[in-house]
Amino acid sequence: MRLVPALVLLCSYPACGFAGDGDEGDAHEHAFPPIRNTQPDGAEPNTPQQAAEAFSAPEGFEVTLFAGEPDVAQPIAMTFDDRGRLWVAECFTYTSRQFDVDHGDRVTIFEDADGDGAHDQRTVFWDRGFMLTGLEYGFGGLWVLNDGTLSFIPDENRDDVPDGEPGTEPIVMLDGFTFDAGHNVVNGLAWGPDGWLYGRHGITATSAVGAPGTPEANRTLLNCGIWRFHPTRHTFEVVATGTTNPWGLDWNEYGDAFFTNNVIGHAWHLIPGAHYRRMFGQDFNPHLYGLIDQHADHYHWDAGGDWTESRPDSAGAATADDLGGGHSHAGAMIYQGDNWPEEYRGDLYMCNTHGRRINRDRPVPHGSGYKITHQPDFAFANSPWFKGVELKSGPDGGVFLLDWTDLGECHDHDGVHRTSGRIYKITYGKPERAGETVDLASWSDADLIAAALWHSNVWHRRHAMRLILEPGTQVFRDFGEADESPLAELFYWRLGKVHGLELMRYCRLLVALADISRPSDAENPEEAYYFALGQIRRVLKEKGDGERKEAVVCTLLRDLHHTGLADSIEGASEGLFGVGGGSPSPRVRLVAASGLRRAPLSDRLPIAAALASRSEDADDHNLPLMTWYGVEPAVAAFPAEAVTFAAESKIPLLREYTARRITSELPSEPHGAALGALLERAALLTRSVSEGPRAQPAPPAATSSLTLRVGDDAVAFQQDVLTGALAALEGRRKVTPPPVWAEVQPVFAASADAEVKALANKLGVIFGDGAALEELRGVVTDRSASDAARVAAIDSLAEARDEAVAPVLIDLLKRQRGEDRNVFAAAARGLGAFESDEAAAVLLNALPRVRLEDRDALLATLVSRPSYGKKLAEALPGLGVTTLSAEHVRALRAFQDPEIDAVLDEQWGTTRATPEEKLAEIEAWKEKLAAAGEPDLGAGREAYKNVCGRCHKLYGEGGDLGPNLTGSDRRNLDYLLGNVFDPSAIVPAAWRVSTVLLADGRVLTGVVSDSNDATLTLATADATVTLPAGDVLEIEAGDASLMPEGLFKTLTETQVRDLIGYLRTQSAPR
Predict the structure, then answer these.
(1) Hey, what CATH topology would domain 6-296+328-428 get?
(2) SS3 content of the chain, % helix, strand, coil (to 5)
(3) How many CB atoms are closer than 10 A to CB 1027?
(4) pLDDT for 21-41, tens place per residue?
(5) Where is the signal peptide (predicted)?
(6) Which of 277, 482, 614, 861 sits between 20 and 30 A of 6, alpha carbons compared?
């Protein structure tokens, strides 16, 4: 008998749901809500069979129809049971914005009893779902992501009817998943090789996750990332954070996980404890300082990156079709079945939404992890209706592919075609009868163990592994009894013959069993830990394939870290990190860095020091940041010890980030002392290089290890320490320096390295150092200095509110000498820090004469203060309405000044319209554009730079404040015009505009990208500014997008035609 999860055993439950409109008839009385399409009338897909026949795939492959409407519709997720039957989540509640309460979702089972590749039996298992976005089978029932929860639907007797009385709700294991995300929702469930249940989450809203009844303060916050849940202990934890909207996850034969994502990168190696690049917003830990980028070395669209090999020659620029189809991806499968040819095994397959195809990439070992390279796209649907969402290999090695089947961009702005959906099967050769029906749940324990260790098809290995881990198996009950356990008996018989992957799978099974049996058996975890560690050491001594041996060691070490099996074992950290931290293999060192987060805080600095001692890892894709993520809390907790860690580190990033983390805690006394010690070490290194060995005894901070570093690159160390300290203090003013500053500042000021001098001067300004202020004032007017140095000096002095620089900046703009041209924008921005009638007059006078690229800086200052804004409004009739952008108009209206508003109403018009007015305007522009003739793409590109390029990137050009447009569905005119006329229709919290009132009288509008006790960072269309928290009087959060309405008001119809034409191109015009 298979047992259900522990929570179920504690409940006297009637279970949930019922079989709905299955082929056998309804098991209970329940009416499933009517299914309605919102796709415009007249838009209908081809038939399911025609869709299957339209596919093109490599020679020898067959794409056949397994199921289609009306038997299946809106398939969003799938899984297999132990009989090889396909369970499908049908999500009818999805809409373009929020889920539709008038619809319902359901789970349907499809069976191919005769093995001909098409289903011949359909059963509705449960049809009371809402916002159903994931499902997985095991441990006595079905797990579902439903209605903002992770829930369990028991079916212990496997009769395809939820156990208990009909109508009872599923058993909620976790709740708190957000309802505020339209499409970046919690999604996807899959059993990991460690026995945990994995899921994914998108970026647009934050969930507060916990077991039902968990107090808010004890819940785990989560937005974009990967999470997991233990099926018997009910432990929830975040595995990694970041990206945009991960919608696919799978593991290779070594247990390394990979997931797919959208917009900012499509393929990532899942490293436990990692923090990945985010599309927007800030990680919950403000002290990460750096994020890991995708592991693919390319994009599936022309992002203007380094992946240039696939771009055509002079015959024409590459298109998204050439590169992979676009930025939207769903599903992930690393093929490890036994039907496709060997050349396809181990590659990563994903659905490309815009490209209507299946992409194929290849994870290749590289450095500490993987580089994911592009392979020829695997299959093409050749239909605009194809919306692939998931693909999985089945019991016969064939691959099942879910097709949502709908038109439009991935967010369904044009309506949802709910009555369609397809499931295809992709096999090499025509589908053949599979023979007897598979039912692994009926296999003996010995057969399950053999399948888990040696079966050639990953489907059998994974199902056998999960069945062994379920508490009902004899293997589970006998675990730890070495003389009686079939697992132990089988292994010891073959001990001399088990190597490589077999040994790895055995040890993984052992570790997972020990982990899942906790806390019922206190001895097993320790026994399993020491056995697995012994096998790791044994493997390291063996001769043979170095790469495979390395992968086995990585896998076993990762399991011991990641399960937390060693967390409560005394001395475990020393044993694990003794193997991993000092390994000559960067892959093994990555496992050690990943596990660092589980080590006791007091152990982390010594462990991290071993990882930081290898200069060859400085440019590794993962190791510097993973080491930092693990050691960062220890740096804050033990600042004195962290000084030595930084001084001895051979990885610049770790030196810089350590200095930054220590400085961020000022004015804490221990951290101030630690910063002083770091600065003194840097200064002493300078003296050692310039003066030779010191004759007098070194001060306490200069330990014996310092003497050993005399031959190292002292300047680089100084740059790292100063850069880190300066970054921590950005936006702060008049910070009390450590006492040693007066001694070390002259040393840095006398440095022969210009960057060291500049960094020290900037730091001195923040510390209120008069000499540093005077030095920077001189740089501002020194026309022999570089433009970059002068701009940096202006920025530092303005940030410090140095009143003496204001007349200098006014003079620069008043005279407008040619040699000052490249500092005009910085001077204009700097004047924003000072209230001055003369400054406003000079800015207005300079406005018609400065270069176009400088004008935004002048306008940004003029719209930052009510007094300046009033003068600008008075001058607007003479300047002309096209002087202002929509962003400037919004900033001026934020003053709520009737006189300013009256001028804007007359010159610009109103900026808010009703939804009906917006729709009417969209239709009117569609008619205008249809009659406007061919666009001038060169002129369109110029319009793009002026109107869109400050915030958005296209073909590698533009800003990063808003989404990258290159991979979006820009061919869709409704999509483009909808975003222009109603940009706030769907806007994540991270892109909503706030109005910030400052103590100096300024009113700034923008997105709050970061905030803490010391500073607030505001991103605007023109710049990103960091402000002292003490300067902020009020923040008014809005619900509008950073992208304002009214973008077309400054353009002629011809310019709009050219802009839209340029935006709709699929390759960069030449």
Answers:
(1) Neuraminidase (2.120.10)
(2) 40, 20, 40
(3) 21
(4) 444 444 445 689 999 998 877
(5) 1-17
(6) 482
